[in-house]
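Researcher: Dear colleague, please comment on this protein.
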Amino acid sequence: MATKVSEKITDFKATNMQILNAIRAVSSPLYQDRVPEATKETLNDSYNAILSYQATQNEFLHELVNRVVRVWVNSMSFNNPLKRFKKGLLEYGETVEEIFVEIAKAHPYDPELAEKTVFKREIPDVNAVFHRMNYQNFYKVTISEQQLRTAFVSDSGISDLVGRIVESLYNGSEFDEFVIMKDMITNAAANGRLTPVKITSKEPKDIVRAIKAMSNKMRFPRNDLNFAGVTNKTDIDKQILILDADFEATYGVDVLASAFNMDKVEFAGRVVMIDNFSDVYGAVAMLVDEDWFMIFDKLLEFTENYNGEGLYWNYFYHVWKIFSNSPFANAVLFVTNEDDIEAFNTTDFGVTEVTFSKKETTGDHPGDYQFTATATANEIGEITGKVNKFANTGIEYSIEPNNASTHISSGTYITEVGKLHISKHQSDGEIKVIATSVSDRSKTAEQVFTYTKS
C-alpha cells in the first residue's frame, strides 16, 4: 500500500544560529562536546569548532543534508504540474498489483433450470495487472570546503547553501518526472492505449461541447474508453482535464467551467495545464480518470562520501519510482489535426517486430554467450512528418527447454541484457532463447541454442 506524502514546507528560511542548534540537538555526544550551543556571543566559536575538525564537518553536513535538505526536497516533490496523479510512497515491495472485477452478468429466470444450477459456482471475471518499479536514477551535487566556510559568513548563509543544494537536486528530479509523465501520454497514444476523439471545429462552443459530451459519457458504464475493454465508469469528481497551454490560453477555464455548470474556482481544481503534449497527434486536451496514472515513489534516499584529496563532499539523491498507467481506467485524447487523426486511427505506432541482431547458435563450454534482440517500431512518417520516438522498444529475455529431452540447470540463466550464462552443471541439449517486447508482449523472437559439452 502506498502512503500519501503531504506538503510540509514551501519555503525554508532560518538563521545560521537556528540551524546550528537544531543540528547540534540531534548530533552525537562527541559533536555536542566539541561544538558549543550557538548564541550571539558564541556563534564564531561554533563555526571554528566545526571548521577546525574534519569529523565535525562531516557530521554537520551529514545532518544538514539528511535532515534539513531531505525534508525540504521531499516536501517539494509535489510541485510537478501533474502532481495530483501520484499515488504516494510505496513502502514495501517493488510491484503494485491492480485488480478489476467485471460487473456480474444477468441470467434468465427459469425454475426448472434452477434445480440443476442453484449450487453451480459463478466465478467473477477478475482482471489483474502488475505495475513494476522501472525507474532508478540518482542526482549528484558537490559541496566544497570553501563553500562550507562561505556559508558561515552571512547570517543566512547556511539556508542559502541548502537552497542551492535543493535547487540542484530537486529541479533535476522534478523536471525529469514531469517529462516522463507527459511522455507516458504520447507513448500510450502511440500504442493504442488511449481513445482518440476528433475535434473538427475551432469554435469554442463546439470544442467545449465535445469535451462536455465525453465527460457525460464517462459517467456511465461502458467498455470502449479504456484499453482493457472492461466495463467501467468515471464519476465526475474523478475526471481530470489536462489542457495544452495554447488551448487553455485560447479558450480558458471560464468557458469550460460555464459549460460544466460549475464555479470557475471549483472547476479549476479539476484542470491541469501542461506546456504541450509533445507535439504529437495535434492533441490539445485529455480527459482522464484520476487512477489512469499509476505513479509511485519507491525510494527517495541521500548517500554521501568525502573526497579527502579534493576537499569536497559528494551527495547523491537516489530516486526510484514506478511509472505506469492503468489499462482499466478511462482516458480519451482530444485531437484537432486531421492528418494526425488519420495516422492515429490507421497506423500501428507500437512495436511491429522483434528480431535477433546478435546471437549464438552453439556452445561447447560453460560461460557466457551474448544474445541481442531489437524491437522495431513504425515511424509516423510522411503522414505527419513526425518520428515515433516514444514507442517503448525495451526487450525482456527468457529461456526455456526447446524439447522434452533438455533440462536447464538451476545455474543456467539469461540476464536482462541478453547474456546467457551456461552453468558448469548444464547437460547437453537445446535451449530456446526468447526475446519479448516490453510494450507489446505478443511481439517475440526465438533462437535455439544448442549446447554440447566438450
User: Anything to note?
Assistant: The radius of gyration is 29 Å.
